[in-house]
Please model this.
Amino acid sequence: MSKSAIEINGRSYEWPKDPVVGVCIDGSEPGYIEEAVKAGVAPYFERILNDGTNRIAHCVIPSFTNPNNISIVTGCPPVVHGICGNFFYDRETDSEVMMNDPKFLWVETILKAFHSRGAKVCAITAKDKLRTLLGKGLVFGDGTAISFSAETPETATMDDHGIEGVLDLVGLPVPDVYSAGLSEFVLAAGVKTMARDRPDIMYLSTTDFIQHMCAPGTPVANAFYEMMDGYLAQLDEMGCIIAITADHGMNAKHNSEKMPDVVYLQELLDEMLGEGKAHVILPITDPYVVHHGSFGSFAAAYLVDSVDQTALLGQLQAMEWVDCALDRATGCERFELHEDRVGDIIVISTRNKVIGTTRERHDLSVLKEPLRSHGGLTEQKVPLLMNRKTDLPGSAHLRNFDMYDLALNHVLEAT
Model:
């Protein structure tokens, strides 16, 4: 086993001196942790805020789950790794496609790079939509690489996931996908796996069900962070370096009547251009509609050649609900996206607005609480915390995908 630095995706990572646990708290905008600390229910988080590393970072845009989780585990933006959303339009097949197949991921993950050099690695995610992406390239069967989801833990096998008997190991039942229990299962599994196998590098990714339902400081949100606090403290007691970030923030996206504050962009473009001239894609789209009803603050549209894009973008940018409207080249350069997987134009809504396609394609009855969602620039700020101090200057501009760089390259030795 070589323990020299590993080069991957244009970055160098030192071999971990202690087990490194990276945690992505899905949807954790700044404020959730601080409010739980203020309520007196999160003593371990309080310790990190006071004695560890406490920074604000920017996530990638669109501020959705898949592009950000993959950015974190590859250490690079979507223009490099290829995952530009949860969902995209495949021009070659003329079909709308979930971007959860490993074939869409162009590069190796940090987990794969270290495993290839002899490290033990583990990725535990809340949802199946991420599991195969996180586990791409890992060779299972001997217990040195593990990748499974809390959504279907009972189906994990040694040959396909690097682990079996997950339910017996964790000691919790299969959680409901629409519950805080899904995230608790991830953290409990991380603690039990660390205690049993002591992987060198671990990645834990939760679900944002609670953040979609509850604002920072609410009793339910505080209870959720209290739960996480306890599991993170256990990992700390095992001597782990713990780095914590989020894939995106979260904001209220409803009006005074508690109904989603939506602009149906497909309907709007049909009115402006005529039917059949634009095809709107919402990259937030995934199977978990109770979370967000497929409403987010980022949309792309594919246009026929006859559309005057400059004129259209000017009209859109003048609308009060539009944060920015950009052509493909400009948007991809600004947000580090790959042009092959983005529409002809990008439209991002303001803080409390979301974008839909047409009224018929969204079932508002699935939403159990007033809508909170993400996707835009107003959900770009996320926490970046660590239970150790680092040598980074306070002026350093950080991204959430710097998490493993901090944990592997910038930890200060204890004095």
About this structure: Residues 219-237 form the longest helix (19 residues).
